[in-house]
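Inputs:
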Amino acid sequence: MEHIFSASERELPGMVVIDLQGEINAFADQELSAAYERAEGHATPTVVLNFKEVSYINSTGIALIVGLLARARKAGRRLAVYGLSDHYQEIFQITRLADFMNIYSDEASLVAELS
Amino acid sequence: MSENKQLDRNASWAKPVSRLSTADLPRGAVNLNVAGRQVVGPLQGFGQLWQKTYRVRLSGSEVTPTQVIQVWKENFPRFWPPGNKFFGPLTGIKPGEVAVLNLAGPGGLSAPGGMPVISTGVLVIYADDESFSFMTPQGHMFAAIITFSAFDDDGTVVQVQALVRANDPLYELSFRLGVGHKAEDEFWQQTLENLAAHFGVRGQVQQKVTLVDARVQWSQARNIWHNAAIRTAFYTPVALVRRLIKR
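Outputs:
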């Protein structure tokens, strides 16, 4: 089974984007958490998760994202996402993550709305 | 990854449902507080947000993670502590299935006439060869995602991990008083011990608890309207009178 996951962050005006790559499962926990901590250091009001290069998310991965969302809400930050396939947009609806985060199709539409 | 493999993996997830429905339940199931309810995740709950992880190592057993999960999915209710009943489909744990839970109170306490203290349910949101997950409906004690998994770490380790908030202020009060936490911890410890015993292992359950968010969400206080414990308590005398009339 593939356990390769990486996360790196970059800053845009008013937001920091975390580019995710690979599978989000239990093995992504430390890397994802570390990337989020680095993103928190940027002190921008919005943190964005880019799922464009994510190949799979299992239920542990969804729980990790719920945890990040809780951390963002606790710190008064907005968490937004883009690059989700139709399937994972559906998963975000089932798990009710979509109730608490804005989902965009791509970075351009996200930047246009949030900038 | 091939398209077919991706489709197979996508099938591990449940299809979206706006409201839960139940069907083909075994005789004896007290089916309340499930049909028509929405599922709620940890973000929709009221209380403090906790991550609770319970683990047992199957030392000395040759069983693989996949074999453990297969047995667990097929026999899920068997490993629960006495007094608690899980009425799921006969086919076992599959994505999209809804199960009805008839739960005892703390210490295995049951209501008069053998009625459950809480009748509620769960939705299976995910199931693959190495894990499966539940979400809870409105009225359940928890607004939660609970994941059951097994993995290889110099031997097979079995884990229950719950990302959980008390669903409403009354449940939160029971957590603050320690009753709710104790009952939940004992429940999953005993479940894992029973599962380990099935594989011939006398397991020592390790527990890790992290407070993810100490705040309560007052905007969700109205969740108490659906409180399954209150609703089950109101239903119990009605059910007992019905039983007497039928005799």
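Remarks. Residues 59-74 of chain A form the longest helix (16 residues). The helical segments of chain A are 29-40, 59-74, 86-94, 107-114.
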